[in-house]
């Protein structure tokens, strides 16, 4: 019954978001994504054995499908039956799910994401293929359209804005797929704290400050962080700081002193030392290689 189907009428409009060209490392989490307005005819069918994004590829890429409907309607056929996809709904199709989704109205405006089968989205394996109404649908759709629109403009703060939007998008994906449904209150609080750290990389974070915010001792917080992220607290913060520094090096003309200050280092010397220890190359050399 199940087969690969790709039937897209010329009246359909689809905008693809290429996370490989965007700041950050979202491409390690999102294989492919886009915003679509579909008309006349649209059908996508999959057997559940994986995707071939490039004809040269031999191995299939395993992905979770996430669709968010803004207006109009579609329908999806699963092994359990046929379901209408209405505005404000989210469709989740975990890895290995055979399906057929198609246009079911005069138009269907939606955003879609193909999520890598990676550790961060491992919890999706425990979910059943389903369509459900969610108050998180429209905000996620809006973030996708903002990323689409921002991709067409340039400006002094574009990198910072796009990086922030991508962070928001990843958070919305996790919330929309109910990542926290099986988390303990402590795990939820830890996740929220890490989000705050990412938004304030310039702040002089210490294990003592983080532990206090969690109402834990420093050794207790260290063990919690190690268990949840497989990294020590300071190594985790360093990772976030230097990943953001890479975005600034690649997409802005900020000098090393400005970058150092924006991610919480006292001066460019301290920043350059830490960068070289982490990546094995100086930030100036890294920037030159990226821009060549």
Automatic annotation (TrEMBL):
Q: What SUPFAM superfamilies does UniProt report for this protein, alphabetically?
A: Homeodomain-like, Regulatory protein AraC
Q: What Pfam families does UniProt report for this protein, alphabetically?
A: AraC_binding, HTH_18
Query: Calcium: is it a keyword of this entry?
Result: no
Domain HTH araC/xylS-type per the UniProt entry, residue ranges: 191-289
Q: Which domain of life is it from?
A: Bacteria
Indicate whether DNA-binding appears among the record's keywords: yes
Q: Which PROSITE patterns match?
A: HTH_ARAC_FAMILY_1 (PS00041), HTH_ARAC_FAMILY_2 (PS01124)
Entry keywords, A to Z? DNA-binding, Transcription, Transcription regulation
Provide the protein name. Answer: AraC family transcriptional regulator
